[in-house]
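Input record (one chain):
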Amino acid sequence: MIMSLDDEIGRPSPYLLEVALKASAEATNISLAEISARLSEAPLYTDVWPGEHYKLLAGLVKVLQPNLVVEIGTAAGLSALSLKKFLAPTAKVATFDIVPWQQFPGAVLQAGDFADGMLVQHVSDISDKNTCNQYAPLLSQAELIFMDAAKDGMMEQKILDNFKTISFVRPPLIVFDDIRVWNMLKIWRLITMPKIDLTSFGHWSGTGLVQWTT
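The corresponding structure, as predicted from the sequence alone:
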């Protein structure tokens, strides 16, 4: 689907443009070879850039230096490891999924990845309002959020609606995966906060960056 931006409400802010440019520049020189080495066969997704988003995620962490990154959708763990790579020693990635990483097919995560406390998985569905409320104290600390949920046309919107009830200590940046997948088009289009489509520097199926505002 082709849509003009002439009537787009959520336009990128100067801050969003600055972060996007810096993170993209960082991604150019980032190596995730040690993560790619965990993949048993090609394609080695974390080596692909542009076209995949892993180096861009790592670049965003390098630029922002967040104290807390929240990932929604652990899956195999490639994104979690990419987000963790350039964290400060006192920072943390809190990743959420409804499937424990040990049970996810093709998982690249290892028990040692959690040993330093910088990576923690929560097996919970924060699209559920009550569950999200339980995690509100943690979520409110997030400075960078990576949204890689179900892409079913509903889950991401539910999470966004839940986030509106959270008093973030510092308004986070939210990275949306797969914004050009059909079920995500409407959700992305209706976001009125400052945003920018970074697909050319991220995932071929769509990468968007949103500056959370209240």
